Structure formats: structure tokens, C-alpha cells
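Give me C-alpha cells for this 115-residue protein.
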Amino acid sequence: MELDLTPEAFSTLLARLYERDNRLEFRQPGETYPRSETVDAYVLSGHAEALLSEEFEGDVWGTLEDIDETAASEEEAWAKIRAFYLDRGNVLLRPGPGEEWIFTEALARRLELLG
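Here you go.
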């Protein structure tokens, strides 16, 4: 499954989340949360199976090696990574131009990305 979010919708999603004990949860109205639990794109990237980002240095080559594939270019590598994960039921999220993040279906569901 592939999903597109506007940069604004992605920012709204991040603002609704907090991370505690390496688990993402939704903030509850009226509750306060320590700054250490703030979720930004960097924190969220730690929950992705793989990502291609202009902002973050994704380990495309390491991920490619993990799935026992080879490629001649970064574009080919990412295409193989994307196909590998999507064939296994993961979710591709495009939170803006030049960004592709892959999450497990379970995480995408918990983040209410699947409707």
C-alpha cells in the first residue's frame, strides 16, 4: 500500500505523537508530556523499516545488503528495497516531495494512516 501525505499533514501527525520506552503513542488532550518524549521526523525515522529522505541520511546500501540484493545505483537500490518491503505487506508513506518512508502495516495502523 502506498500513501501520500502533505508536509502539513505529516507535521500534524508528528505533533500528535509522543515516544515512551521506544513506543509511539498518541497524545491525550489535557495531558502534559516531557520534552524528551517529543516526536519529530528524526525520532519517527527510527521506527521506519527503511527510508529515502533528503533530510536524513538513510542507509540505503546497508538495507539493500540486509535483504541480500545488489544494485548499480542508489535509485535501483531503493527500487529493490521498496519492492521487497511492499511485497511483504509493508506501507510506503510519502510525507512530501523526495521522501519515502516504509513502515510495517501494524505501525501504520497504530498511527491511523490506514483509515
